[in-house]
Amino acid sequence: MVSGLINANPVVYQKKERRARNAPCDSDEYAVEPIDQLEIFDHIRDIKDPEHPYSLEELKVITEDAVEVDDGLSYVRVTFTPTVEHCSMATIIGLCLRVKLMRSLPSRYKVDIRVAPGSHATEAAVNKQLNDKERVAAALENPNLLDMVDECLAPSYS
Amino acid sequence: MELLDGRFELKETAKLEGHTDRVWSLAWNPATGVGGIPLVFASCSGDKTVRIWEESPSSGSWNCKAVLEETHTRTVRSCAWSPNGKLLATASFDATTAIWENIGGDYECVSTLEGHENEIKSVAWNASGSLLATCSRDRTVWIWEVLPGNEYECVSVLQGHTQDVKMVQWHPTMDLLFSCSYDNTVKVWAGDDDNDDWHCVQTLDESNNGHSSTVWALSFNATGDKMVTCSDDLTLKIWETDETNLHSEAGYSPWRHTCTLSGYHDRTIFSVHWSRNGIIASGAADDAIRLFVENQEKGIDRSSFQLIFKKEKAHNMDVNSVQWSPGEKGLLASASDDGTIRIWELVPIS
Question: Among A106, B25, B103, B307, which residue's Cβ finds the most Cβ atoms within 10 Å?
């Protein structure tokens, strides 16, 4: 029987151990702590894959190293790797990442989302779409799409 | 704040709050700001509403005179006043364009234009107010004829863009329509003598020094012989046409690229507007507003432009729209993802 899934048998990896973010010992508890790579990764690691009961971390769609952050410049770039080159779910995954970071980070942040170079057949088209905020805004007004995104994001809020 | 020229700066004179989502666009009423009529503009937002703002002549403060709601069911992306300032057209992601009339201080929706398959991104009136253009994610541009009794008839559906059309804008004096797109091009459309058969007369793309990513907006200088476009490729480009042919009957005079302004904005440039006294304002996703003027030195073949002022952190988030006011005052209004509209005055530095 032909499976309706884009990638019927994905490789599932073990989750990385959760590390507590190490706070400097002489820290003033009222000081503003800069947002770092691990904090951003913690926001997105538990997002569920749109077609599997696994997290993006378990499928190695994202890793901690795929998060680049410069808190001083209020800038984040997340590079994700779809499990298969022709993954039609890539834009949904990217949309989930963008929405989660939009909801979690201070509004001063600028966020770029992209697929890893060479990891997707229509890389440039996917990247362009994910970084066009008008398309993103329109997509999020589509109730079906928003439901799909919210379902993927649900485990990341726990 | 950096000043290369040291002559002008933008001074914030008002910060208008009221929209509960990002403000996408704003439009000054062209019939205001002259002859004692107070300045009025409209703003539209992801909150599905349009707000009408009026300057108080005595205090110079701004008041929200009306909120146009419960008509559009999704984001209102763009708005435009008819040349006589009597009608306001609003374009929405709900695939409709609404026409509003100010009837005794109340804005009433007098017509709804349907036809696009999905999100409408921009709406524009031609110089005489007899034609309206709309564009959409459905890749088409529609031209509507304005008929008596608030009737609008679609006279042409223009196909040619291969992706969403981001903005439509009419030439300031001629019935030439310009559209810019996610397909990285600007297309110029002209009608036959009766304005009922329209076709693409020119495409400005990478092969003629055009943009390498989405073109978000365009604007004309006062005389209509120059045009500026802005893009996701982080550049502004200046285009020129033959002024001498402009009003002749010789037909269409093609546009050519004359200058690229790059290295100024760090992120997507969403909006550009050329003032009647020659100052180009640009607003971008880097939260900044920049002002440019043409260099006056003669003897150079090609025109060149210089940055005269840069306002970093003009808003707390992306700047989506910048528009110069009509009238003598020359105010600049900017709209942002931060939900505010700010009014700026261009003041000489003492």
Answer: B25
Minimal Cα–Cα distance from A135 to chain B, Å? 9
The better pLDDT of the pair A14, B273 is held by B273
Q: Chain A: nearest CA to B36, how far in angstroms? A: 38
Averaged pLDDT score across all residues of chain B: 93
How confident is the model over B207-211, as a mean pLDDT?
A: 96
Confidence at residue B333, expressed as pLDDT on a 0 to 100 scale:
98
Option in A107, A108, A141 nearest B75 (CB): A141
**Separation CA B274–CA B267 (nearest Å):** 20
Q: Let me know if residue A6 belongs to a domain.
A: no
Domains, chain B, ordered by start = 8-348 (2.130.10.10)
End-to-end CA distance of chain B: 16
Are A103 and A149 in contact by the 8 Å Cβ rule? The answer is: no
Within a 13 Å sphere around the CA of A156, how many CA atoms are in the beta-carbon half? Answer: 27
* Phi, psi for residue B5 in degrees, rounded to 5: -105, -35
Please answer yes or no on whether A107 and B318 come within 8 Å at the CB atom: no
Cβ pair A110:B166 closer than 8 A: no
Distance CA B33, CA B324 (A): 12
What's A143's domain CATH number? 3.30.300.130
Cβ-based contacts of B44 with chain A (< 8 Å): none
Contacts of A138 in chain B (CB under 8 A): 75, 93, 118-119, 137
Q: Find the domain containing A150 and state its range.
A: 37-157
Low-confidence ranges of chain A (pLDDT < 50): 1-2
Q: Give B317→chain A minimum CA distance, Å.
A: 6
Task: Tell me which residue has tokens 């779809």.
Answer: A82
